[in-house]
Hints:
Blueprint (H helix, E strand, L loop, with lengths): L8 H7 L11 H4 L52 E2 L7 E5 L7 H11 L7 E4 L3 H9 L3 E4 L2 E4 L4 E5 H10 L2 E18 L19 E3 L7 H28 L2 E3 L3 H10 L6 E4 H9 L4 E5 L7 E9 L5 H10 L3 H9 L3 E2 L4
Parallel strand pairs: 2-3, 2-6, 8-9
Antiparallel strand pairs: 1-3, 4-5, 6-12, 7-10, 7-11, 7-12, 7-13
Amino acid sequence: MKSLKTKPRGSVLATLAGLAMIGTLPLAQAAGTSTADTGWHGKAEAPHYQEEIFPPWQHGANDDALDKGFKFTVPEVDDMADFHGNLDNPKLILYIGGNYFFAVAPLVKAFEQEHSKYKGHVFVVTIPPGLEVKAMKAGGTFTSGNMTFTIKPDAYLAGLKKVKSLIASGMLTGPAIAYATNDLTIMIPKDNPGHITGIKDLAKPGIKLVMPNPAFEGIARQIEASLKKAGGATLEQKVYDTGVKDGSTILTHIHHRQTPLFLMQGLADAGITWKSEAIFQEQAGHPISNIDLPAKYNTTAIYGGALVKDAAHPAAAKAWLAFVQSPTALKIFEHYGFKPYNKS
């Protein structure tokens, strides 16, 4: 892979003027400038284009379509990285919490080897689970850029607590299936410009953070719990309250892609993610590393899934929910740092 040189933040922000993935904060606030600024005050310039750092990072492997036709993917400009497959005649539609989008390709491939009738007909959505719930309430209709389409799910997979709550509300049909667990880590650029050594360093003066948005990303609850374990309410408030207000913390909108993207672009020094996400970035050859959290500070997530009420393909959904508990699927998850769920 080409070496990626860290650019001045002002120059990086110029490349992001047309990027729709900047998150919930305005560019001016994300850069730490006054929110009273209403215009672009940087020097306009052509982007220093580095295609390899922009998603999709798997070069089409997550697309289950047998005939991909004319390929039109322009990273940073025309790129739908969280919608996988062919909208024409899907036989299984999955809404999967986005923090294991990188495992979609091997999981779908292995599933289709066991269930060949679904080959080429699996469609997967991997936006954050809270946003997937909003999509379900909107009838499964999405608009991305100038494209609107409807793709209603057969199964929903996210945090086990979220799945159980949706069963209770009637959106999903039980039982809830638990299958894997994941731990938190601190994701950093490989050269560690912030000299981060542990979770308490996230409160150091001058450190720029990129963190999942509590409004719709379940991981934020686990992160807040870990921050409180390590530094009490003071550390949690520094990261998620005063940091957001003073611009030292950027809140993401698509956390599983934006955190490493912002780190590689020099917009942040660190961000807490799931361990699996950092492992994938390192396996992909990106200049990303991570710092483990001690067990006493860490928080473990349990992943679960369930059938969607009135699913169009209930048999396929049940087959998938059985598959993710299988040794074949768990071995794939293990490759990215997940662990099998053990009820005891």
